[in-house]
């Protein structure tokens, strides 16, 4: 795990912000990843590998270097925190055929990353319900750690807690789920400064839900004011962490709503 | 369309071999109207008979359009007389107009002579609005005369039967030729002409143009491979009557809206029969329109017209104007070009004229008769602009015009053209290259660059390619054709995105998401809006709701004043000629007598408070402004050079830790705002030719402006589709900006052709490295630095300029840090400590 002095430097430099979520201390990194030190855990979300090559199939002659770039940034962040367990929170591959289009050396780099840590979990998402066996690491529909659910799309926690039929699926250490960390939505937010608007990928943190920004190179964002977020949280009751040019900021009141 | 003409001077007669013969039916028709066939009209007929391409330059009201069509009408008439059928004659004359509306206008106007003389030829127009049924009909049986726009022409050229459609073409008329010079649409049109020439070289080119500064370069643009066409010049002897119109009590120091003079403008409208009120931006149009109605107690019929409004709304205004029901129309450059608006008595130019040639064009809209002087008022929006107005009035009195030298063609259009060629027929690379060279704008294009553009069109042309490439073009024995139908369809949908690049429709909501499209705004503007922001649009205040499916949704608001004062539409660059003229004017106090007293006072005040910008020394002022420090350079080098200088200096400031926040440019100067105060000693390290060093390229590539340029390039070259995924709601969160593609390319394929194209594009439209470096070398040792307590009188109009270039970097981050909950984050440090110690 990372040293305290290094962490302090990151904090003073606005590159990380510590948060408390469902009773746990965690770190949000400006690169768009979440670190859960107590669990030695680092979460990436929505890598969308091979999105570039997916789009080229539709007569868009886009440059296809997005996977390369995403992998490179993953490696840098992993080196920074040196965590033992890496979780990718779904939509890691852009589509079912992504592996076939991936360049061989990119696949090699990806597997090298997986092998570099003791444990790697692919939480499956709507874009990648199946991850081909050529890619190393564990697969899981979700992860249940202590009182938290790590899942791609949000679940109805109350229903899971009530339905005893689902209980066997969950780990035994804690039976009650009190919060979930999700991907899928690619949240972004804007902040109005004096005469400019700053927009960036964002974390949204509520009492029982934490939304991760997308990490993949060619991923856009959905503004947190969008109606799609209404069922998930009340904007007035959440904290929004905005990332901008390798730094992360928390704004309490002045986020334009 | 046709009016009486007197007092014409004809010059530059081309050598004529065959004598032109005007059929009696035409002579009789002219005689019946008491018109005489003018000498230059006769010359146009001769040029046609002798198969000579010709550029006719004449002022508005000279019957230019009839002169352009007369030779074709006569020739088709003769062919019909000889017993040829309409079908056998086929498509004889193609008329290209920069404006859709113009084609309808011409269509109506041609009907008169054709039906009155019973000529029996077929005429049709074809634009983006033509129904697919009519298009099919035109394709099967082309009319003898087809009126179209460059985009529609390019689309027709992409058909597999293009060669058949244009096989009998004898003449192409390019109307408003001057408006094509030095623009991407001009480049696009010259490529379309080159393609036509490739399919069938037996047609002549006829250009119809307003008076321009450099007729020769326009004639070269029109000709095949840059060989200039003949020129026929018709000059008017009368000079327009121009006057400056201001409020006697008060002229503002800054601002561009000229609302202070609304009473005077309304009084002028009230005195004249019909007036055209020209403004420079759409925002100005909206504001002036509002302001005039606030004063309009008489209830004069005043309308608004600009390119952002919906088609229906514009057509309504056009009809009312043609019927003489309006007293005035507030308009932008949308009305500069030749639609016939009936009798306009007065032109009022609100805001600085920006260019002498443009001002002449606008003035020409008044009094569509060559022999009577046009009457026009110039209303400066602030004291600085009155200098520009006076300089322009003086230039027109002297008969001087401004015009920029021709530029090489824009490269991002080439992939569109390549795709267009292969959609029409399988082609080899070299024959397409040959066609591109035949377009005058591209005669200097080197083969290497072309090959790279071709490879981009084919498969993206990336250095690192996956083993399984995706091809847009497939090759068979050296001939290329589109890989599949989707490629063709996508290309055809994207033809002509040049004009529309980066614009969003505006929907005026009645309830929930239902409402009417009322027009368009620039994407750049839409991105700045937050929910609840209000702005002027189509003459009312709208409140922004959100962007949904690439449509800006807004509902009518009740507020009196909009929160967002303006949106940047159709910013016009000041001509370098006029910028120079203004600097000279400032330096010759004797000439100030012609300025309003308020302006003279202002200049004297500047002289005593700071100094007047001189020719010998560059004036630099520095003062605190709006919570930051502003440094102002009075360069008088025009927008592009100031933009370049702004980018370079702020980059250096960023590196040296001055924390620049933004810079804004006007035609006269550059103002930079920064967190740290600039002192005199700093200037030598900031304003120095050093900043043009090796890093220049890198600096340029990182600027947010270059990203905007890339966005345009990406859309035009077909890298991305405009409104990408717009119809798939579920995909909304995954649409991403071209900035990401740009960054990726820079990092992984820095030599990619699109990056070169982006630089070229920025050089064309935004930057002027040559002038900037000349400026740096000339003034780096001779400047006058004035540190002031507050903005000087002359600084006010410049610092109030709304358009500023934001700098993404330490400055913005510093602001964010001030605003964020830094204190709390520091408290959380204890948390971190606890966390690492295992808690």
UniProtKB/TrEMBL annotation, chain A:
Residues 42-161 form the Calcineurin-like phosphoesterase domain. It comes from the Bacteria. One of its GO terms (molecular function) is hydrolase activity. This is Calcineurin-like phosphoesterase domain-containing protein. It comes from Glaciecola punicea ACAM 611.
């Amino acid at each position: 795990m990372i040293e305290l002095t290094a962490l302090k430097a990151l904090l003073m430099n606005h590159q990380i912000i510590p948060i408390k979520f469902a009773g746990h201390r965690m770190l949000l990194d400006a690169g768009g990843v979440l670190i859960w030190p107590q669990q030695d855990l680092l979460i990436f979300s929505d890598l969308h590998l091979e999105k570039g090559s997916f789009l080229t199939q539709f007569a868009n002659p886009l440059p296809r270097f997005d996977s390369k770039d995403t992998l490179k940034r993953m490696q840098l962040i992993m080196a920074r925190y040196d965590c033992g367990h890496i979780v990718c929170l779904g939509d890691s591959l852009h589509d079912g055929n992504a592996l076939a289009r991936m360049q061989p050396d990119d696949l090699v780099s990806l597997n090298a990353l997986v092998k570099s840590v003791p444990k790697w979990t692919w939480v499956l998402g709507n874009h990648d319900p199946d991850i081909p066996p050529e890619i190393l690491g564990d697969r899981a529909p979700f992860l249940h750690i202590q009182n938290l659910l790590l899942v791609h799309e949000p679940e109805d926690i109350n229903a899971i807690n009530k339905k005893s039929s689902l209980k066997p699926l969950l780990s035994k250490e804690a039976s009650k789920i009190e919060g979930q960390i999700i991907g899928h939505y690619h949240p972004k937010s804007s902040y109005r400064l004096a005469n400019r608007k700053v927009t960036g990928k964002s974390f949204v943190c509520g009492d029982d839900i934490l939304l991760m920004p997308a990490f993949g190179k060619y991923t856009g964002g959905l503004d947190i004011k969008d109606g799609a977020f209404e069922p998930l949280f009340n904007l007035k009751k959440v904290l929004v962490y905005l990332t901008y040019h390798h730094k992360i900021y928390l704004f309490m009141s002045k986020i334009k709503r | 369309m046709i009016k009486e003409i007197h007092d014409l001077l004809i010059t530059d007669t081309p050598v004529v071999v065959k004598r032109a013969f005007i059929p009696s039916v035409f002579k009789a028709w002219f005689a019946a109207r008491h018109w005489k066939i003018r000498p230059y009209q006769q010359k146009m007929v001769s040029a046609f008979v002798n198969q000579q391409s010709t550029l006719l330059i004449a002022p508005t009201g000279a019957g230019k359009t009839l002169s352009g069509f007369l030779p074709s009408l006569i020739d088709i008439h003769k062919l019909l007389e000889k017993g040829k059928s309409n079908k056998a004659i086929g498509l004889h004359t193609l008329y290209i107009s920069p404006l859709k509306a113009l084609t309808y206008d011409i269509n109506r106007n041609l009907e008169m002579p054709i039906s009155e003389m019973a000529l029996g030829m077929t005429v049709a127009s074809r634009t983006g609005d033509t129904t697919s049924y009519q298009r099919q009909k035109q394709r099967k049986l082309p009319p003898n005369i087809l009126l179209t726009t460059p985009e529609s022409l390019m689309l027709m050229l992409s058909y597999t039967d293009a060669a058949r459609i244009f096989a009998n073409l004898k003449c192409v008329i390019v109307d408003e030729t001057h408006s094509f010079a030095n623009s991407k649409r001009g480049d696009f049109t010259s490529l379309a002409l080159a393609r036509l020439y490739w399919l069938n070289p037996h047609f002549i080119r006829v250009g119809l143009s307003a008076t321009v500064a450099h007729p020769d370069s326009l004639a070269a643009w029109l000709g095949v491979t840059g060989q200039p066409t003949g020129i026929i010049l018709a000059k008017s002897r009368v000079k327009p009557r121009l006057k400056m119109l201001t409020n006697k009590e008060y002229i503002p120091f800054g601002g561009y809206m000229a609302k202070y003079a609304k009473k005077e403008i309304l009084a002028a409208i009230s005195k004249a029969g019909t007036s055209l009120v020209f403004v420079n931006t759409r925002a100005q149009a909206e504001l002036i329109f509002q302001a005039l109605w606030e004063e309009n107690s008489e209830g004069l019929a005043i309308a608004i017209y600009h390119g952002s409004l919906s088609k229906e709304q514009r057509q309504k205004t056009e009809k009312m104007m043609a019927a003489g029901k309006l007293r005035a129309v507030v308009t932008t450059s949308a009305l500069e070009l030749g639609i016939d608006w009936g009798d306009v008595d007065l032109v009022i130019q609100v805001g600085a004229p920006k260019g002498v040639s443009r001002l002449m064009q606008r003035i020409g809209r008044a009094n569509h008769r060559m022999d009577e002087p046009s009457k026009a008022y110039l209303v400066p929006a602030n004291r600085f602009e009155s200098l520009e107005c006076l300089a322009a009035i003086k230039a027109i009195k002297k008969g001087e015009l401004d015009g920029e030298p021709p530029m090489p063609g824009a490269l991002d259009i080439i992939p569109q053209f390549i795709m267009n060629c292969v959609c029409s027929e399988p082609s080899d690379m070299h024959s397409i290259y040959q066609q591109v060279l035949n377009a005058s704008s591209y005669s200097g294009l080197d083969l290497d660059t072309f090959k790279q553009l071709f490879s981009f069109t084919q498969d993206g042309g990336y250095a690192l390619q996956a083993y399984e490439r995706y091809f847009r073009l497939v090759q068979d024995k050296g001939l290329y054709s589109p890989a599949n139908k989707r490629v063709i369809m996508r290309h055809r949908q994207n033809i002509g995105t040049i004009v529309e690049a980066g614009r969003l429709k505006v929907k005026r909501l009645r309830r929930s998401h239902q409402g009417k499209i009322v027009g368009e705004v620039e994407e750049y503007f839409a991105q700045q809006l937050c929910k609840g922001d209000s702005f002027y649009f189509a003459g009312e205040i709208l409140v922004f709701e959100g962007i949904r499916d690439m449509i800006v949704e807004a509902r009518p608001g009740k507020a009196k004043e909009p929160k967002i004062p303006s949106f940047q539409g159709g910013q016009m660059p000041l001509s370098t000629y006029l910028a120079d003229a203004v600097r000279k004017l400032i330096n010759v106090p004797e000439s100030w007598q012609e300025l309003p007293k308020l302006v003279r006072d202002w200049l004297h005040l500047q002289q005593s408070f700071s100094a007047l910008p001189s020719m010998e020394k560059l004036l630099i002022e520095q003062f605190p402004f709006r919570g930051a420090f502003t440094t102002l350079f009075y360069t008088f080098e025009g927008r592009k050079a100031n933009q370049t200088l702004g980018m370079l200096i702020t980059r250096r400031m960023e590196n040296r830790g001055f924390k620049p926040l933004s810079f804004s440019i006007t035609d006269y100067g550059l103002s930079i705002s920064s967190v740290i105060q600039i002192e005199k000693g700093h200037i030598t390290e900031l304003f120095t030719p050093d900043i043009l060093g090796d890093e220049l390229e890198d600096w340029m590539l990182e600027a947010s402006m270059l990203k905007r340029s890339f966005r345009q390039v990406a859309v035009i070259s077909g890298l991305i589709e405009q409104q990408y995924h717009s119809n798939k709601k579920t995909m909304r969160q995954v649409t991403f900006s071209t900035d990401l593609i740009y960054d990726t390319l820079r990092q992984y394929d820095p030599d990619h052709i699109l990056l070169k194209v982006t630089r070229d594009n920025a050089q064309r439209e935004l930057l002027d490295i040559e002038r900037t470096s000349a400026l740096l070398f000339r003034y780096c040792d001779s400047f006058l630095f004035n540190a002031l307590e507050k903005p000087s009188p002359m600084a006010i109009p410049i610092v109030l300029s709304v358009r500023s270039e934001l700098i993404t970097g330490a400055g913005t981050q510093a602001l964010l840090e001030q605003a964020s909950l830094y204190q709390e984050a520091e408290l959380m440090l204890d948390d971190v400590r606890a966390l690492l110690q295992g808690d």
